[in-house]
Amino acid sequence: MSAITNHMPTAELQALDAAHHMHPFTTNDELAAKGARIITRAKGVYLTDSEGNQILDGMAGLWCVNIGYGRSEMAEVAARQMMELPYYNTFFMTTHVPAIALAQEVAKLAPEGLNHVFFAGSGSEANDTNIRMVRTYWAEKGKSAKTNIISRKNAYHGSSMGSGSLGGMSYMHAQGGMPIPGIHHINQPDWWAEGGDMTPEDFGLARARELEEKIAELGEDTVAAFIAEPIQGAGGVVVPPETYWPEIQRICDKYDILLIADEVICGFGRTGNWFGSQTVGIRPHIMTIAKGLSSGYQPIGGSIVCDEVAEVIGATEFNHGYTYSGHPVAAAVALENLRILQEENILDHVRDVGAPALKQGLNELADHPLVGGVSIMGMMASLPLTPHKASRAKFASDAGTVGYMCRERCFANNLVMRHVGDRMIISPPLIIDQPDIDVFMARARKALDETYAQVKAEGMLKAAS
Ligand SMILES: *Cc1c(COP(=O)(O)O)cnc(C)c1O
Predict the structure, then answer these.
(1) How far is the CA of 389 from the centre of ligand 1 (A)?
(2) What is the pLDDT of residues 257-300, one digit of tens each?
(3) Which of 150, 273, 282, 399 could form an S-S bond across to 421 if both were Cys, CB 3.0 to 4.6 Å?
(4) Could you count the other beta carbons within 10 Å of the beta carbon of residue 397?
(5) Which NCBIfam families does the protein's record reference (predicted)?
(6) Nearest atom within ligand 1 for CA of residue 233
(7) Distance 420 CA to ligand 1 centre (A)
(8) Do strands 39-43 and 46-49 pair parallel, antiparallel, or not at all (unpaired)?
(9) pLDDT reported for residue 3
(10) Which residues of 92-129 are buried (b: 16+ CB within 10 A; e: fewer)?
(11) Is the pTM of this model over 0.85?
(12) CA nearest 167: which of 229, 216, 96?
């Protein structure tokens, strides 16, 4: 058996990549000029590239490799399942053991009352399912005017037409005709960037009450659902003020609006509980899952649906599904991932070891002149960069210029830390331990020092007016 691996010089592979491979969320011409970094293998929390560098992955891939890389059990389960039943669908009155077992296990781990799973191949697909499911739910209940869905600016819910419309990324909406009709966005609870002189508590309440205002504007009888990430991930790890979520819950209850928690990042241990909804204390009707469900070893996502919604949807034919809904190999691998998370007590590790160590390390980094603060929940965190800490000032340069510089300095120091605008993002594999957190902090500090020197040298240490 041969694996597809690195058997050519890096420059040749880069040239082939540039010639034929179109990258997501990338200016491909720029990348072609620069050459993509080629990742060849990974183990634990470290990636290896084609030049033999050992890179600490502070992002767990794309927020997904919760159990870390290189778990041979996952490969064995996949191989066994492929030999036994590589594929069968679940459309036509058929099912299979991996889908049954995974749905049962997910229902067991999910909060009370969330006992049904509709599978998809990704988070984007699952959110497309959610749009159609909540609208169908209300139509079946005789309230077919309830079609509007309220989301938030700077939310990320995926990249398909539906999920990208749910998301609140203006640079995505600018291309290809999004958002689709019936999706509305309120402001996000980002106190650091938008809170001005308000206290975080007052700001959290004010931003939550925008939901009530939007419901009034659209008409109470026209709103199907509100969707949000318990803690925004791709928007920059925005931990909302404590006043925010209780107020949102109150408003959803009052106006009989379904609450969809997008748990694609927060789910499966990232915040120290199985789901971010538990961490922030909300009771969603539907939870979107993907990423950590399989730790990225296989593409799989889904919607965990409450009894009430499942009952209504169950009484009709829901004309929706994906060829790979509940794919047996992906389901078997996800089930193995959940076994590892449970048997190795990885959530306890997050709560007792990983998250406190990460928090302490980042709090120490916060003394750096470029770092404006620390936003952290469990093992997702961000460091906003600023030219002036006390006023939480933004840079005069275009948003993302300094963040990008810092990301490049991180990469040069064998650390993956992403940037969202001028915020640095941290979301390591959940299994990371103290020694590797120390490595993380040392590399991050060096990268920040180098960024600071570069920002100063280029005269960019200036606040936007
Ligand atoms: C990544 C992500 C998605 C989209 O998942 P894909 O598998 O990339 O389609 C949806 N919601 C959130 C919160 C995400 O982080």
Answers:
(1) 32
(2) 999 999 999 999 999 999 999 999 999 999 999 999 999 999 99
(3) 399
(4) 18
(5) PRK07480.1
(6) 15
(7) 15
(8) antiparallel
(9) 54
(10) eeeebebbeebbebbeeebbeebbbbbbbbbbbbbbbb
(11) yes
(12) 229
Cβ–ligand 1 contact at 299 (below 6 Å): no
Question: What DSSP assignment string belongs to 139-169?
Answer: HHTT-TT--EEEEETT----SSHHHHHHS--
What's the order of all strands across the beta sheet hosting 418-420? 375-377, 380-384, 423-426, 418-420
Q: What is the sign, positive or negative, of the torsion defined by CA atoms of 411, 413, 415, 421?
A: negative
Q: What is the DSSP letter of 429?
A: -
At 1 the pLDDT is: 45
Q: Does ligand 1 lie within 6 Å of residue 122's CB atom? A: yes
Query: Quick count: other Cβ atoms within 10 Å of Cβ 62?
Result: 15
Amino acid at 420: V
316: amino acid identity, one letter: T
Instruction: Give the three-state DSSP class for 119.
Output: strand
Which residues, in sequence order, are CB contacts of 349 under 8 Å at separation 6+?
A: 430, 431, 433
Q: What's the one-letter identity of residue 10?
A: T
For ligand 1, the distance from its centroid to the CA atom of residue 390, given in whole angstroms, is 34
Q: What are the pLDDT digits (tens) for 102-123?
A: 999 999 999 999 999 999 999 9
**Top mutation candidate among 156, 165, 270 for ligand 1, by most atoms within 8 Å of CB:** 156
* Cα distance between residue 271 and residue 278, in whole Å: 9
**Terminus-to-terminus CA distance in the chain, angstroms?**
61
Q: Is 155 in the pocket of ligand 1 (CB under 6 A)?
A: no
d(CA 366, CA 402): 17
Backbone dihedral angles phi then psi of residue 110, each to the nearest 5 degrees: -75, 155
* 301 close to ligand 1 (CB < 6 Angstrom): yes
What does 58-102 look like in DSSP terms, one character per residue?
TTHHHHT-TT-B--HHHHHHHHHHHHH-S---SSSS---HHHHHH
Pair 56, 443: CB distance under 8 Å: yes
Q: Going from the N-terminus, what domains does the chain have, and what CATH number goes with each?
A: 37-67+345-457 (3.90.1150.10), 73-343 (3.40.640.10)
How far apart, in whole angstroms, are the C-alpha atoms of residue 297 and residue 304? Answer: 20
Query: Does 294 sit in the ligand 1 pocket, CB within 6 Å?
Result: no
